[in-house]
Amino acid sequence: MSGLSLPIHPITNNPTQAWEEMRRSQKIIKLNVKTPQTPPDQNMLRFVCMSDTHCLTSHLQFEIPDGDVFVHAGDFTRCGSASEVEEFNSWIGALPHKHKIVIAGNHELSFDPKFTGGASIKQHHKTAHTDTGSGNKAVGATSKRKPAAGRHGNPGRARRPRGFKAFCDWLVSRARWAVQALRGDGLINEIPDLGMERDDLKAAVAQENTIDLITNAVYLQDQALTLCGIKLYGTPWQPEFCNWAFNVPRGKQCLEKWDAIPEDTDILITHTPPVGHGDLCCTGVRAGCVELLNTVQTRVKPKYHLFGHIHEGYGVTSDGKIIFINASTCNINYVPINPPIVFDVPIPLGFSK
Fold first, then answer.
1. pTM recorded for the entire structure
2. DSSP one-letter code for 61
3. Is 101 a residue whose pLDDT tops 80?
4. Nearest CA to 294 among 22, 1, 93, 21?
């Protein structure tokens, strides 16, 4: 976190109008990218990027290119139910890429503690690793955990443990589940259902430790990961959007999330786009974050910024220094038609695949 204090844009709550003012000093270059047809050189790390698949991986209308690193920028489920996460985990586990990285999006309701009442990611799911030397230590970053009893429903249905301490722990677990269920129900009743059954949303957030079902990839939530000397940082937060998962108000609270991004990040993965890049909705409204663009251009300055969220914003742009990639797989009609976006990054001296 830098000591540099970035200002809040005076009309950050209206990103469309804010962009009209900002664009006078901005350079926007639309890039037409093609999937490489030859393997990468040994001194290049190939990234294959997707986002917003929404449980539709079985209906993909393309082959997924091979590469070294597969990245998914969130919204891999419809509501974050355990069965949806398990299906995605099986799918990503079958991909041939050596490294696989995932962040959550606003549809992963069960990953957000505000709905489940659970512990923060850093308290119970530490899968962020950094490497040294060749960078091969990142291979071991994948979590291999077996689902705990009662994870997919009321823990009270799990077999009652023996022993006084175990029994007390079991009672605490039941009480925690009850509080979480009540809390989740309250929030779920307040948010729009976005075409889903309300009972399905309630069931999704009633399930415990859904994050731990991601065993075939490294899940990043406000965490960094270094692969072959290249530093990535993943974060799921977005400006308020229907009050679903990982939503925060525009302005100060968004900036507080972006302040955690390390300045030496090479590849930034967010679910939300920054304002002005891949964020234009079909209604003509811009949904990107003003403070995120300011943070990326002024302080962090990554080589690449990957995201999704706005399906119709799919594509690649640049400001002349940073490459912005909206990798949304689904189009506005939720048809998974947009192919993965592929790029190669030079591996720093002293590192290798």
1. 0.83
2. S
3. yes
4. 22
